[in-house]
Design a protein that fits this description.
heterodimer; A: about 525 residues; 3 domains; eight-stranded mixed sheet; 22 strands; about 35% helix; B: about 450 residues; seven-stranded mixed sheet; four-stranded parallel sheet; 21 strands; about 30% helix
């Protein structure tokens, strides 16, 4: 068995875990980051892409609102490249109480969230597809954030400072030495090989799976209740501003424009299993109905993909016994030495993507306390790789950048303008195990044709450059088709159904993928 | 303002294989025919072969096929379509082939082969028939069964293929010879990839770009000069399906002659060059027989008189024009063309003539299976039929091609066979029912 030693072992490669790795690496700690799957393939990669202004919490949860607006401002500096400054609107639709806008304005004023009422005509000129009978519109600094880009940049930054990032490494056991956690034993999901990591401190950043990881350490009192929600990506930008219903937060009240799509979110159902990825058809129907209250005739637009995300909602089984000094209502930091008498282990869970940096900061502060070392946090001022210029992402620049090289650069995925060069660079960088990994890193196959044209091309390139056999390439292709189908069958109607049939024509007709050599 | 009305014996809606076949046959029998189509049909997407029956679904297969390790559906490869057809029809009595009948299928295949030979591409031929399927390499290196195929594909038949060089170029993103060759080796063919430098004026060249270049003799000479030193003895040559658009027989023969060995095409992503040839052949046959083809003519409504469709409306150049006919052939395609639509409230409709559908999943039943290769209840939907190919609720509409219910064209490897047979049979039924046959007009008098 191979062994690694480090100061900090971080379990969970979502935004929180990657944020912890980046923070700790900046403080000069030796870090190993592991995830059982790909990076950002859990809750982080399965949300709508909203960078909160805090306005959604301003009425009900002022503390969360203050955290959000503060982090929103920080991330616009240090993670500019991952953020599109769309701005946000809260609009009063005919189904909403017009007086709620006043409560929201007041809540924002008290929590320091910039909020300004716009004339309805101006809001409608800005977003012409909005319901024409909206009564009020408030502008807030919401934005959209590309989480795959973010987690990629966090990991790259950490790696540049010596961190080891190990996707597809599942924790099979947490090593305990009496009352001290000493690291973990991992299994490489691809090779099956095991790996022992000895760490001075282990961080459980497994989000909705944090309870399962804590159990491996013999702690059964970490209760995370996964809240399951579905989201639907609609083709194209129905809106260019994040649009929220101006009412207390509920199901189906937000549309987030991100990259080339608009995401309607979300539902909220309790589930026992964080791996529950069901998409009930009645939830799809309800979400589309809700979306139509913001953008009428939304049902006529193409729905590209539907998916389920699980929120990690922390319920503290030891609430009475634990001082809440470090625990906000938004997220939970558990120092198990104090809480459970088990040293060397910290759990960070709950929270939301917008506050991942703050969560990471508090976590690494706790880790430094445990190590007895004073190392100040610098993530609020140190820009992530790619964000040094503090230039935020603009959708309109995408085509301009590609157009210049059209004669020289082969485009593999036309919908998302992914070039062969980008694909080859990504493969050379390593860590890519599947076409779905390429999808997360490059947005390959995420556009209207859902991989109809690019996936054969990408399979060919993966086989040529990725050092895999034809049988493995075939399996990767079939796995991608399977994954894609999971996200499309519940929303197959209208033009997207036509598209799916055309794709079937290519895959099952011309390429006959159902009968590849056995 | 009343719309202008044009009168025909038959109006065919759709310009895919089914529609063009029906229209050609009607015109050849002397009927006055017009094809109205929103756009080009399936030909430009499909491989350009006529797959009649490639796989028997589990229910019809004997012995039961093994579950594939790759997760594909269970289906048995058909080697002899003629022998497998009765088994298919015994298991699926509502299948489109049960409505066309076997005779029409056989006649249609022979008719297509004759039409290709007499067509505008000199010397270009289709080979094969119902007796046996050829197993043709796909761009992934699998083998796909097909009954009637272009001559330019024939040397790829795996039963005769021993050694082959799969030729591609980094400049062609739609063909990956390494993957193709390695998979082919797993089927027992000694295949190896060859890469040649090709230069196009843009980086996203398709097989169509290559086909246009290969139409040029000088380009072929340069390509063969590059290839010749790389080839081994007794090795055949496979290229992506791009061996010429205007004169494929000459392009293919020229390559075989220059390279001194058999050369064949492997179909890949659209646009399909062999499919474009087939479209050219069928539309030219239609023109020669005196029929008319109107592309960009989307049918936007129908006028009924009692239980008959009297005319259909087309919006063209800013005004509405009506086309009246004795018989209409609805060959507008199925879900892929948008002729059969499912909306977000899960209501399905036939968009062209507003006809009733059959094969719909009942309320509460799933439309699609969560398993990609599973049985999708919605996939067999089609226009509700009366006897033979007649639509159930109107008297003078025949249905052909993907608008027919009851088939799983890609699963069965039957799409083009159904299109061809049903288009052919629809023309026969129209002629019998409406007495449309007239003395055929001479091609010279047929120019419209």
């Amino acid at each position: 068995m191979v062994g690694l030693e480090c100061d900090l072992l971080v379990i969970g490669g979502g935004a929180t875990g990657a944020g912890v790795a980046w923070d700790a690496a900046l403080r000069g700690l030796e870090v190993v980051l592991v995830d059982r799957h790909d990076l950002a393939s859990g809750t982080s990669g399965r949300f709508h892409g909203l960078l909160h202004s805090g306005a959604r919490y301003a009425v009900k949860d002022p503390r969360a609102a203050r955290e959000c607006i503060s982090e929103n401002r920080v991330l616009r500096r240090v993670a500019a490249d991952c953020i599109e400054d769309t701005g946000g609107l809260f609009v009063t639709t005919p189904w909403d109480d017009p007086a709620y806008a006043d409560r929201l304005l007041e809540g924002c004023r008290q929590t320091g969230v910039d909020c300004e009422e716009l004339a309805v005509g101006r809001a409608l000129r800005q977003e012409p597809l909005l319901h024409p009978r909206i009564a009020r519109a408030l502008a807030v600094p919401d934005a959209s954030i590309d989480v795959w880009k973010l987690v990629g940049a966090l990991c790259r930054g950490a790696q540049q400072r010596g961190a080891r990032v190990l996707p597809y490494h599942a924790v099979v056991a947490i090593s305990r030495d009496g009352e001290e956690v000493r690291g973990a034993r991992l299994r490489d999901a691809r090779s099956g090989e095991e790996l022992e990591v000895r760490a001075r401190v282990t961080v459980n950043a497994a989000g909705a799976w944090a309870g399962q990881v804590a159990e491996l350490a013999g702690i059964d009192s970490v209760r995370v209740l996964p809240g399951r929600g579905i989201m639907i990506a609609m083709a194209h930008r129905l809106v260019n501003t994040v649009v929220n219903r101006c009412k207390p937060p509920a199901d189906g009240d937000i549309i987030v424009p991100i990259r080339t799509v608009s995401v309607i979110g979300t539902t909220d159902e309790h589930t026992e299993d964080p791996d529950d990825q069901r998409v009930p058809e009645q939830e799809v129907d309800a979400l589309l109905d809700d979306g139509e209250r913001l953008v009428p005739n939304l049902r006529e637009a193409r729905a590209l993909r539907v998916w389920t995300g699980v929120r990690p909602l922390f319920e503290d089984a030891k609430a009475a016994a634990t001082p809440t000094r470090d625990v906000t209502r938004a997220h939970a930091l558990l120092e198990h030495s104090e809480r459970d008498g088990v040293g060397g282990l910290i759990t960070i869970t709950g929270g939301k993507l917008t506050t991942f940096r703050l969560m990471a900061e508090e976590t690494v502060d706790a880790a430094c306390r445990a190590l007895g070392e004073a190392r100040p946090c610098t993530t609020a001022t140190e820009p992530l790789p790619g964000s040094e210029e503090q230039h935020s992402y603009r959708l309109s620049e995408r085509l301009g950048r590609k157009e210049g090289g059209l004669r020289e650069r082969q485009v593999v995925c036309e919908c998302e303008l992914v070039s062969r060069e980008q694909l080859e660079q990504q493969l050379a960088r390593g860590g890519v195990a599947s076409l779905d990994d390429l999808r997360r890193r490059l947005r390959l196959g995420m556009g209207p044709c859902q991989g109809g044209f690019c996936i054969y091309r990408a399979t060919g390139i993966l086989h040529e450059q990725g050092g895999i056999t034809a049988a493995e390439a075939d399996a990767a292709l079939l796995e991608f088709l399977d994954e894609r189908w999971k996200g499309s069958w519940p929303i197959l109607y209208g033009d997207q159904l036509r598209q799916a049939r055309l794709d079937e024509w290519i895959f099952q007709g011309v390429l006959d993928v159902a009968h590849l050599p056995a | 303002m009343s719309a202008a009305e044009l009168g025909y014996d038959a109006v065919v809606i759709g310009a895919g294989t089914a529609g063009l076949t029906a229209a050609c046959r009607l015109a050849e029998e002397g009927a006055r025919v017009c094809v109205l189509a929103k756009g080009i049909g399936c030909t430009h997407l499909a491989a350009g072969t006529v797959d009649v029956l490639g796989y028997l679904p589990e229910a019809a297969a004997e012995p039961a096929p093994r579950q594939r390790p790759t997760g594909g559906p269970t289906a048995a490869l058909v080697r002899e379509p003629a022998a497998a057809l009765p088994r298919l029809l015994a298991a699926l009595p509502e299948h489109p082939y049960a409505r066309t009948g076997r005779a029409a299928l056989e006649e249609a295949l022979a008719w297509l082969a004759r039409t290709v030979l007499a067509g505008p591409l000199p010397g270009y031929r289709y080979l094969g028939g119902l007796e046996r399927n050829r197993l043709l390499p796909t761009a992934l290196g699998g083998l796909r069964p097909s009954a009637l195929i272009p001559e330019t594909f024939a040397a790829g038949d795996a039963s005769a293929l021993r050694r082959v060089a799969i030729v591609g170029s980094p400049a062609l993103r739609d063909f990956h010879p390494r993957l193709c060759a390695e998979n082919l080796r797993r089927t027992g063919v000694q295949a190896r990839p060859l890469s040649v430098p090709l230069e196009f004026d843009r980086a996203d060249a398709s097989t169509l770009t290559l086909a246009r270049r290969l139409d040029d003799r000088a380009f072929r000479a340069r390509l063969c000069a590059e290839l010749t030193p790389l080839l081994r003895d007794e090795e055949q040559v496979a290229l992506p399906a791009a061996l010429g658009l205007r004169d494929p027989h000459a392009v293919w023969s020229d390559l075989e002659r220059r390279l001194g060995r058999a050369v064949f095409e492997i179909p890949t992503l659209p646009p399909s060059v062999p499919g474009m040839r087939l479209f050219e052949i069928l539309s030219s046959a239609l023109r020669r027989a005196g029929g008319r083809l109107a592309l960009g003519a989307e049918v936007i409504g129908a006028q009924r008189r009692g239980a008959r469709v009297h005319s259909v409306s087309v919006r063209a150049a800013g005004h509405e024009r009506r086309y009246a006919a004795e018989v209409f052939v609805l060959a507008s395609g199925g879900l892929a063309s948008g002729a059969i639509e499912l909306d977000s409230r899960w209501r399905a409709s036939e968009r062209v003539l507003g006809l009733a559908l059959e094969g719909l999943p009942s309320a509460g039943e799933r439309r699609f299976s969560p398993d990609y290769f599973g049985e999708h209840p919605f996939a067999r939907v089609g226009v509700a039929l009366g006897p033979q190919l007649w639509a159930r609720e109107v008297e003078n509409v025949l249905v052909a091609g993907a608008a027919l219910p009851g088939a799983l064209p890609w699963r069965e490897g039957s799409g083009e066979g159904i299109a061809l047979a049903s288009g052919y049979r629809a023309a026969q039924l129209a002629i019998e029912a409406a007495g449309l046959a007239r003395p055929a007009r001479s091609p010279a008098g047929a120019v419209l």
